[in-house]
Amino acid sequence: MKMGAMCYTSAGSSGHAVYICPTCNHKTLYASPKKSRGTEQEYETWNIIAFDLTAARRLINEIQKYAPAVSLRENDFCDNCAPRRGVPYLSIAIRYDDGSEIMTNKISTSDLLMLKAFFSGELTYKDIDGVDTVPLLEKMPCLKFLLGEPANLVPAEKK
Hints:
The protein has 159 residues and is of the alpha+beta class. Helices cover 29% and strands 21% of the residues. It has helices at 40-66, 109-120, 140-146, and strands spanning 16-20, 27-31, 70-75, 89-95, 101-105, 124-126, 133-135. A 3-stranded antiparallel β-sheet has the order 3-4-5, covered by helices on one side. A two-stranded antiparallel ribbon has the order 1-2. A two-stranded antiparallel ribbon has the order 6-7. Helix 1 runs parallel beside helix 2.
């Protein structure tokens, strides 16, 4: 049996992920944590950079077509901008017409898919794996949280 084209085989993991800061263009290298010594947070940070960051940036660009006041914040990933950084995470900022701004920390690409559906006027969206269709109404508490609204609004009393 002859071997076919090798370009179809999956590429091996290089063991590191490179973060390029959109603010200063500095590169920060994140080594893949060793299974025996890595913490859960190290795995989470590495996975964000290796897999989620590109999708998050793409989704924010799509959201900004409908809502330009929404922006992605990449907090503490850059060694140059945040040398004494804390735990890195993704967040969104929404700037309202009155000048106020809300920040929602530790968001996921699933959250961004939900926001894209909301701002584009869709009633449903595909989940992160692209298989299941999720009604936006079912995610209303999460959506309100992402938009800076209280999840349990108490109706105003009638006068």
